[in-house]
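Fill-in record for Glutamine amidotransferase domain-containing protein.
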Amino acid sequence: MNLGLAFDPLVSLPLLIAAGAVAGVVALLLIFARTRGAWLRSLALALAVLALANPSLTREEREPLPTVVAVVVDKSTSQQFGDRTQMTEAARAELEKRLDKLKEQGAEIRFIDAGAGAGEVDGTRLFTALSAGLADVPPERVAGAIFLTDGRVHDIPATMAALGFHAPVHAIISGHEGERDRRVALTSTPRFGIVGQRQTIGYRVEDEGAPAGARVPVTVRRDGAVVARPVVTAGQPAEIDVEITHAGANIVEIEAAGLDGELTPVNNRAAVSIDGVRDKLRVLLVSGEPNVGERTWRNLLKSDANVDLVHFTILRPPEKQDGTPINELSLIAFPTRELFQQKIKDFDLIIFDRYAQTGVLPMIYFDNIVRYVEEGGALLVAAGADYTSEGSVFNTPLESILPAGPTGHLTEEPFRAKLTSAGERHPVTRALPGSQNDPPSWARFFRVIDSRGVRGTSVMDGPNKEPILLLDRIGQGRVALLLSDQFWLWARGFEGGGPYIDLLRRLSHWLMKEPELEEERLSMVARGPDIVVERQTMGDSVPPVVITTPTGATRTLDLTAAEPGLFRATFPADTLGLWRAANGDLTALVNVGPLNPREFAEVTSTTQTLRAPLAETGGGVWRMADLPGGVPRVVAVRSSDRFAGEDWLGLSMREVSVVRGLGLFRLFAGLSGLLILMAGIAAAWAREGR
């Protein structure tokens, strides 16, 4: 309980001061004039002025508040290297025992875990965790803070005044002196690259705790496949040229061989993601004659900004001779030699739309097309009645690569095309809008070309199981054959139309080897706090996927069927960095957080990073390995500016309390005030009357 005196004047402060001044002058005059009872009269005047000030006796009932000590435990990924986790847990247990003595003195101990899980911001942020853990504590109650960490902290404030409290901050460092480690540091990383061109990546292999200048074998991978194995000098800059093979993310990994006795191999690898951008997809469309479906192909291809379309329609075949002079013809001559001999390899896709051989293309050019496909090109034949004629492209060298030949007959009857069992799994036709209904909810066709010698994959068929769409791989290239010329009905909206844009666009991009449309494909994607693994396959089942974490640990993951030809599984992304999935010959990569987390950049423990900043607060830095029990002695300091020694740490104990009750007694209120004033006046009157 604390007693005090408070004032609540009955008049304004200027009037109170004036009254006091007048009373003081009168009292001085009485004293200098040596008037009888001058001192008692002065006392009576002072009591009158004091009554105007309205003094009150106060009584406070205070409750002491505990002093708060924060212990921040580093749970970041770098704490998992070596025996740091065990050292930290042992130090935490020992520190907790030693801090129990402070509880008897009214201290509150708060343990704060920092840096656990992939949801954390890149790097170890102990000061952020400390501020959050003490957000509800007034600065005057903080006795100090203790960090249990490896010393690699990435949010050290520019000045310790930013902490918001004046108390010592100490650090106890896990790990050992003289640790060795090798890491790959990226020096220049391009963000974009043109597909088919090469990009240069700069990097450097750095050895810490080992002599510089060692020759280090390096493995460079693109999307999991090895592309180079250079040998570089540790500490010296190096470069590698990598070809951008596809659109989207091309993940390039640079991995250095391990160093004997190094702390961890996890940072021997660095990764960079280069977004592949296609310059232009060049498509050659050759229409054998004007037809109703020709505009469907043209509109589809022209609507894609990434497609550079070259389109020719043969309006005047060689046999059409009407005597018109050449200089009066307005038609452009078909540049066959330029297209099919000189520049054929410049095209990503060649489309023959209802083309019949009329002598426009010599047979040698069809041989060129066959070689073009076998060496990685793409061919699409959209057949009509021309496919059954004597001039059919099947009666050319293309016969060796086309997945089916004509029987010479057409089936002409209304029918709805259906996906085959393979088509339900193939990425070109899987989940095609309308296919989930029976019959499919799209317009009917009225004609299909009967075929023979079918090979490849039939993904869509019609009456009597006659194939409508056939897909095949020839050498390094791909071929597609459409055996109905009725897809334009979908485009015109006949009977509600059909998903012609989805189908033909997927078909075109499959032919041009878009990775998302591969029949056998493994992919990983980060969605929120989870990683989703998907496996596309034409099979009925897939084996478990092997997952490799950023720290190098492996686990198996069973996939479940999500839809025909697609298997999926989800698991939590509990570590920042590059994750890898493997399933047979297929691999997939996904990065959680930054490609090269700061947690893995420098992993050797150190006392130097925190020594100078913590010294500003009066705190100290020690290594667990150098102290008995792993922690220094804990000393409660109340009246000293020194908070650290060789084997002890100090905490500034505070005496803080909160008012729980308040009593107030007004001295000049009511009867008590009257008695005091009457006593002063009576004393002055009695002295004067003698």
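KEY FINDING: The CA atoms of residues 403 and 455 lie 5 Å apart.
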